[in-house]
Amino acid sequence: MARIARNHLIPALSILPTKSCLSANPSLFASRPHSTPVLGFRRCFSCPSRLSMSLKAGIVGLPNVGKSTLFNAVVENGKAQAANFPFCTIEPNVGIVAVPDPRLHVLSDLSKSQRAVPASIEFVDIAGLVKGASQGEGLGNKFLSHIREVDSILQVVRCFEDNDIVHVNGKVDPKSDIDVINLELIFSDLDQIQKRLEKLKKGKARDSQSKIKEDAEKSALEKIEQALMDGKPARSASLTDFENDAIKHLCLLTMKPVIYVANVAESELAEPANNPYVKEVMNLASELKSGLVTISAQVEAELTELPSEERTEYLKSLGVSESGLGNLIRATYGLLGLRTYFTSGEKETKAWTILAGMTAPQAAGVIHSDFEKGFIRAETVAYDDFVTAGSFAAAREKGVLRSEGKDYVVREGDVMLFRFNV
Ligand SMILES: Nc1nc2c(ncn2[C@@H]2O[C@H](COP(=O)(O)OP(=O)(O)O)[C@@H](O)[C@H]2O)c(=O)[nH]1
Ligand SMILES: [Mg+2]
């Protein structure tokens, strides 16, 4: 049996690789000398070739639909809630916000952690999409390359009437707006696929294994090309798992999951379905097997300017119980099939984001790739059991702390300790 050099048990993590980022509010960082331990590098959720700090959602849509208003509200709200969270604005159009999760604070209190670190989502305000972007109009290809890097797309659709705010096509028309954007994405993918197919035709595979891979990629691309030609997104093509893997490196735009964000007037927030534009978006979203969230970007922006005591009152006066941002984050998590597990100790309690179906070593790899490579076992307890017991030690005594091997599929809310060697 291979000798284990060192055997670690890590309740809390001190050896995360960190990425420094510029903060919009440096004073928040001043109290955190080690910058941003929250941001362990991790796999991109949709394209495996990208190393990503957190889940990345790109906000797209035609000009003047409310993208920047929504983006700013998301980031401001993140700041407001982030007494202890190193949110940051990396660039003017990129912001990182905490994923709200009440379980985090319960665990943190039980473990008497010095800090609680939520999972995070990175929002990107992607400007410049107009008709003809795939041919270089507007910001054209620059814009498209930004979308290639995101895990999910939030497409903001204007459903509010306001004569003072110009609509690029002269009138509010969600179906046409959605078609314009989706067509640009389709054109861009078609272009990329056709170039790739040309290359694959030359067949450079040197061994039988690579040949099998190339063949899978080719057959996948041919299926997708057909879907795109029919005006449908790449994700509508039915591919085998192997074919899916073979094309992941291309990060096709229309492979990415989409949430339509219907931006409505504040007066319609309580009963959005009464708005015929929203109905249209609803129908399209369900036809395209995509998510839908109704939001008023304007209201979200106004909320960030109110003291927190007044926010609930304001929302009540509009007939709703909570701000739309929580919905937006939850919808993104749901659509991507994401799960949360926790690590919890005296140093910190932390929420980690993984994909549904990930095994214990893969989940450990989200923290650090060494944890995946050197994985031995995981000790795990369900969130509710941990809370009832009060600590890992008490959970062990009660027999609810399980020791799991490398095939264990991590469940939502697991509180975990990893044993690994390096
Ligand atoms: N009436 C109304 N105006 C909005 C709403 N959302 C955004 N706007 C306004 O529409 C204009 C364009 O918004 P902006 O967020 O810059 O759009 P972007 O081009 O998509 O980034 C701004 O003047 C916003 O104040 C909304 O929900 N209702
Ligand atoms: Mg904008």
Task: Give the tags.
single chain, 422 residues, alpha/beta, Ubiquitin-like (UB roll), Rossmann fold, DNA polymerase, domain 1, 3 domains, seven-stranded mixed β-sheet, disordered N terminus, binds guanosine-5'-diphosphate, binds magnesium ion
Description:
This protein is 39% helix and 19% strand. The protein is α/β, with parallel strands linked by helices and 422 residues long. The protein has three domains: 8-17 and 338-420, Beta-grasp domain (Ubiquitin-like (UB roll), Roll), CATH 3.10.20.30; 26-169 and 256-335, 3-Layer(aba) Sandwich (Rossmann fold); 178-253, Obg-related GTPase Ych/YyaF, coiled-coil domain (DNA polymerase, domain 1, Orthogonal Bundle), CATH 1.10.150. The strands form four sheets. A seven-stranded mixed sheet has the order 5-6-8-4-9-10-11, with helices on both faces. Helix 6 crosses helix 7 (241-247). The longest helix is centred in the middle third of the chain and has 28 residues, at 174-201. The radius of gyration is 23 Å and the shape is flat. The model is unreliable at 1-53 and 83-88 (pLDDT under 50). Bound molecules: guanosine-5'-diphosphate and magnesium ion (MG). Residues 61, 63-69, 160, 162, 165, 263, 265, 296-298 line the site of guanosine-5'-diphosphate. ATP binds at residues 64-69, 264. Keywords: ATP-binding, Cytoplasm, Hydrolase, Metal-binding, Nucleotide-binding. Belongs to the TRAFAC class OBG-HflX-like GTPase superfamily. OBG GTPase family. YchF/OLA1 subfamily. Its main location: cytoplasm. This is Obg-like ATPase 1.
